[in-house]
Design goal:
Radius of gyration: 14 Å
Structural class: alpha/beta
Shape: globular
Number of domains: 1
Distance between the termini: 25 Å
CATH class: Alpha Beta
Strand content: 15-25%
CATH superfamily: Metalloproteases ("zincins"), catalytic domain
Number of strands: 4
Order of helices and strands: EHEHEEHHH
Largest sheet: 4 strands, mixed
């Protein structure tokens, strides 16, 4: 079984505490539907400032972002740490007039899809990525009756 874990950094809590099993099952289903295997993924939920520090230190980018994915293995077996700024997800949800949970699902799916091999550098890649994100948000809603 895949090792998928969720952690809050410092004062940031896991946004869906008590429902980790649902998110675990959903992420596992994404990988399975894409014919990939998750060895492990650790999701770390953090603040804007925490993720900005990581972005500067490891990627040399001096700007806020909602997610940073660190893949440790390439191919069909996924191993990764994924950092998500809860502050940025909240702000994006407001900006896009989306619920926080749907925006969080989108960001989480986005990170997993990058690990699977989907890109978003071109308009065509972005369109495919958005379509896949929407598909997997809908699958979560179908699985757990949002």
């Amino acid at each position: 079984m895949a090792d998928i874990s969720f952690h809050g950094e410092a004062e940031t809590l896991i946004p869906f505490a008590g429902r980790e099993d649902q998110y675990h099952q959903w992420i596992q289903n994404i990988a399975r539907q894409e014919n990939k295997t998750i060895n492990y993924i650790t999701f770390i939920f953090c603040s804007d400032d925490y993720l900005l520090d990581i972005n500067i230190k490891y990627l040399n980018h001096d700007y806020y972002t909602d997610i940073i994915t660190f893949p440790y293995k390439e191919g069909d077996d996924i191993e990764s740490d994924i950092y998500i700024s809860v502050d940025r997800v909240k702000e994006n949800a407001e900006d896009y007039q989306e619920s926080f949970e749907n925006e969080l699902l989108r960001v989480m799916a986005h990170g997993v899809l990058h690990l699977i091999g989907y890109g978003d550098k071109t308009p065509e890649q972005s369109a495919i990525m958005r379509s896949k994100e929407s598909q997997y948000i809908e699958s979560f809603a179908n699985l757990f009756s949002l």
